[in-house]
Amino acid sequence: MRVAVASDHAGFGIKQAVMDAIREAGHEPLDCGTQDGTTRVDFPDFAEKAGQAVQNGEAERAVMICGSGVGVCITANKMKGIYASVCHDTYSAHQGVEHDNMNTLCLGGRIIGVELVKEIVPAFLAASYCGEDRFNRRINKIKSIEQNGKIE
User: What does the alpha-carbon distance between residue 102 and residue 81 come to, in Å, rounded to a whole number?
Assistant: First the structure.
């Protein structure tokens, strides 16, 4: 699986660990920037790049990093077809995929360290959407809100 990875300057400190964890799990990272942790940049610019990689089929999933994970998460969830959550534990990282069809993991570079990255990223990548009726019903409601602004 190809996984788009993006960070701003505040998330840059764990970005390489994320890329390494993706490779170690047998997948291919797609680096969407930033390439520098010292120059201040705006997280929406890089979250958009990773989200677009998923939207256009260049990547199946994405990992986005900013200081808290919240900013990239908000940005990602504004993009059609991107389903993102901040996950700083392994349960949320795999359960978000299995039950909620999450395709984007958001991390806080100022919240977690490299050792947690080594556990959370593989949990996210190893998970698959379970496709049970109750979850499909819920996902369809989310998609209806995304398409129509309400559940129809």
Answer: 10
CB atoms within 10 A of CB 105: 30
Q: Which residue has the tokens 């047998």?
A: 26
Specify the pTM.
0.97
* Active site residues per annotation: 66, 99
SS3 119: helix
Range of the domain at 51: 2-148
pLDDT > 70 fraction of the chain, expressed in percent and rounded = 100
Give how many domains the chain has, as a whole number. Answer: 1
Nearest-Å Rg of the Cα atoms of the chain is 15
pLDDT of residue 145: 95
Q: Write out pLDDT tens, residues 56-91.
A: 999 999 999 999 999 999 999 999 999 999 999 999
CATH number at residue 84: 3.40.1400.10
Sign of CA dihedral 86, 13, 76, 63: negative
